[in-house]
Design brief:
This protein has 205 residues and is α+β, with helices and mostly antiparallel strands. The protein contains eight helices and four strands; from the N terminus they run E-H-E-H-E-E-H-H-H-H-H-H. Helix 1 runs parallel beside helix 3, helix 1 packs across helix 6 and helix 1 packs across helix 8.
Length: 205
């Protein structure tokens, strides 16, 4: 398998899942900052020009965080990264979808790319302020949902790898983490698989 990733991007969560599974894979750097997502070579792999993308052993490619995470967990059941009952499986998908669709695409995207929401440079601060407002609500909800649990679903799962990538971004952009999310982030950093990914991607966490 090949994981196409950019350091510290949402692909970091898939990188963690691969390390948790422990099977051989190749990590292929495609930075979001140097144009390498838009080269003909990469577009042939993923026409969406984004990461993560997972090229499987048969040459086929999966894209989108929830799909890749679900496939990796289901095809490697020994790693126990996804509940086996329908309700638990649905909760994992629910958690990943909220993190991706709301926290990533509505919250952090406004901080990373404000002009994608309003081309007027004069509105940049207002767009980013709205992003921080969305994230404040979202992280507060994550804190409530964590409750007394160590991990998002109770047992450790792919949903924790998803929450981890937005926690990484919170540190980069000074978005406050509520106490339970801060504790979750600390627990994630203590996992050997996560430590290997932090070292491999050169992240300063």
């Amino acid at each position: 398998m090949k994981l196409f990733y950019s350091p510290g991007a949402c692909s970091v969560g898939i990188h963690v899942i691969l390390e948790e599974i422990g099977k051989p894979y190749e990590a292929v750097l495609r930075s979001t900052r140097d144009g390498s997502l838009h080269t003909p070579e990469y577009i042939a792999v993923n026409p969406k020009s984004k990461v993560p993308a997972l090229q499987r052993d048969d040459g086929s490619v999966l894209t989108e965080f929830p799909a890749i995470a679900f496939w990796l967990a289901r095809t490697n059941p020994f790693a126990e990264l996804l509940p086996t009952n329908p309700d638990g499986e649905a909760r994992a998908i629910e958690a990943m979808d909220y993190i991706g669709a709301t926290m990533h695409m509505q919250g952090f995207a406004r901080l990373f790319r404000p002009t994608a929401f309003n081309a007027d440079e004069g509105q940049k601060e207002a767009v980013q302020a709205r992003g921080r407002e969305i994230l404040g609500v979202a992280f507060a909800l994550q804190d409530i949902w964590l409750g007394s649990k160590e991990w998002v679903l109770g047992p450790y799962s792919v949903a924790d790898a998803a929450l981890f990538f937005v926690e990484v971004w919170s540190k980069r952009l000074d978005v406050p983490l509520p106490p339970r999310c801060e504790a979750h982030f600390a627990r994630m950093k203590g996992r050997p698989a996560v430590q290997r990914v932090i070292a491999a991607e050169g992240l300063d966490l």
